[in-house]
């Protein structure tokens, strides 16, 4: 027997007596740690603030003041209840541009809401540092603020606006605070910003729907994954949009292409931006390719709505050549891509609320049929794969009946993927 074995044998019972209390001590420490973690998780859940809703109509500035102060107050209370000293000491946050929840657009009204909220937080809450919503600033931000405006029927049947804000923790992916208020309508300017005004399509894809869902999520719950996973791409798209809205089209084109290559960047807004920028630069071939990709993405997401502007009460396109000159290319690419993907589609026409609803339904069906006929002329194989429908003004996104750029999305033609009928 070796000296090592003799030593182990001699020390065996004594060592075992010492190891037993030590094992119990380790087990006790483990149980204490598990209990503490569980308590912290329960506390975090219990401390999730209750969303605040102000349902009485008020002026826009008053409503915005309430939702902003409520949002910050919820965040502060949560930090105090979790006993995290200095948690809000110059905590970084970014503001993803506020959207109209029906159209998914930025408008003069949403810009006004966004400016008010940003200025109020900057001037009154120094513990929150509002950073530019750019890819380079995201690593410094703990929270992202999202917001929507939605037209609703208010008191005495008048039009009002529901304003909703939410703060999402970028690290945990959970909504930390949410608030809502209702503002009286005061003939607000609903004109879309340049990018959305020029866009040929309605940009309500999964990324935008995820943004809207996140804004409507109660505190303590996970934000919509389709949004959180694409925040980096959203920041890159926002940077490109700023260049486009500033009429710096070559710079915008470069940034849209960069956004397209980021994680989650393959979405309608990037393809749309590449199409718009290349069109402004007179790059005919590239803009046509970009529009084809836009159609492909829309078909893939089953979210393709194209804004064809018709003359009032007619199936003829609008008379302004600058607005309709691209329509033949749109129809050609739409026909070719649809034929190549071997899908069947409902072609659904929509109108603004101008006129009676029976008239609008007939007109919307006639316009849908006009587009379907043009598609079939480009690709005869679509003859048995398209069915036309008319919705009139029953599914308006804006609904103000001005028949101009402000409600152009109401005069759209949608293409919805459906199952093909069985072959005879």
Could you walk me through the main structural features you see in this protein, from its secondary elements to its overall organization?
The chain is an alpha/beta fold and 424 residues long. The chain folds into four domains: 1-46; 52-194 and 206-215, Rossmann fold, CATH 3.40.50; 230-298, Serine Threonine Protein Phosphatase 5, Tetratricopeptide repeat (Alpha Horseshoe), CATH 1.25.40; 302-424, 60s Ribosomal Protein L30, Chain: A. It contains 13 helices and eleven strands. It has helices at residues 3-46, 60-81, 108-124, 194-198, 206-215, 225-228, 231-245, 249-260, 268-280, 284-301, 321-324, 327-341, 357-378, and strands at 52-58, 91-95, 99-100, 128-131, 143-153, 159-169, 175-184, 304-306, 344-349, 386-390, 413-418.
List the helices and strands and how they pair.
Blueprint: H1 3-46, E1 52-58, H2 60-81, E2 91-95, E3 99-100, H3 108-124, E4 128-131, E5 143-153, E6 159-169, E7 175-184, H4 194-198, H5 206-215, H6 225-228, H7 231-245, H8 249-260, H9 268-280, H10 284-301, E8 304-306, H11 321-324, H12 327-341, E9 344-349, H13 357-378, E10 386-390, E11 413-418
Number of helices: 13
Mean pLDDT: 86
Helix content: 40-55%
Approximate shape: globular
Beta-strand percentage range: 15-25%
Name of the top-level CATH class of the largest domain = Alpha Beta
Count up the domains. Answer: 4
What is the terminal-to-terminal distance? 90 Å
What structural class should be given to the helix and strand makeup?
A: alpha/beta
């Amino acid at each position: 027997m070796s000296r090592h074995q003799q030593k182990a044998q001699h020390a065996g019972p004594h060592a075992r007596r010492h190891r037993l209390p030590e094992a119990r001590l380790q087990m006790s420490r483990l149980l204490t740690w598990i209990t503490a973690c569980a308590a912290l998780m329960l506390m975090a859940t219990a401390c999730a603030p209750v969303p605040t809703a102000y349902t009485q109509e008020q002026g826009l500035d008053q409503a915005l003041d309430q939702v902003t102060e409520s949002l910050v107050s919820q965040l502060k209370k949560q930090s105090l209840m979790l006993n995290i000293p200095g948690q809000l000491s110059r905590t970084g946050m970014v503001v993803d541009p506020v959207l109209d929840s029906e159209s998914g657009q930025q408008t003069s009204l949403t810009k006004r809401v966004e400016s008010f909220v940003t200025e109020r937080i900057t001037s009154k809450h120094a513990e929150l540092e509002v950073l530019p919503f750019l890819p380079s600033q995201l690593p410094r931000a703990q929270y992202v603020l999202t917001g929507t405006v939605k037209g609703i029927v208010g008191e005495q049947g008048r039009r009002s606006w529901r304003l909703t804000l939410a703060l999402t923790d970028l690290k945990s992916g959970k909504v930390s605070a949410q608030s809502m208020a209702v503002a009286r309508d005061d003939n607000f300017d609903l004109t879309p910003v340049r990018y959305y005004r020029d866009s040929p399509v309605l940009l309500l894809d999964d990324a935008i729907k995820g943004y809207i869902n996140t804004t409507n999520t109660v505190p303590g719950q996970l934000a919509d994954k389709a949004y959180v996973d694409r925040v980096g791409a959203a920041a890159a798209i926002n940077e490109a949009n700023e260049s486009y809205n500033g009429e710096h089209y070559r710079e915008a084109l470069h940034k849209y292409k960069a956004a397209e290559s980021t994680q989650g960047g393959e979405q309608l807004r990037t393809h749309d931006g590449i199409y718009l920028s290349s069109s402004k630069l007179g790059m005919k071939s590239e803009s046509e390719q970009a529009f084809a990709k836009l159609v492909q993405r829309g078909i893939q997401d089953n979210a393709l709505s194209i804004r064809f502007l018709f003359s009032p009460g007619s199936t003829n396109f609008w008379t302004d050549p600058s607005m309709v000159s691209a329509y033949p290319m749109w129809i050609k690419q739409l026909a070719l891509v649809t034929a190549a993907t071997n899908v069947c589609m409902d072609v659904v026409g929509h109108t603004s609320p101008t006129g009676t609803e029976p008239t609008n339904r007939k007109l919307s069906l006639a316009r849908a049929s006009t587009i379907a006929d043009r598609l079939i002329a480009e690709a005869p194989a679509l003859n048995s794969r398209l069915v036309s429908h008319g919705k009139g003004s029953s599914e308006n996104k804006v609904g103000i009946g001005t028949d101009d750029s402000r409600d152009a999305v109401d005069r759209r033609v949608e293409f919805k993927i459906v199952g093909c009928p069985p072959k005879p």
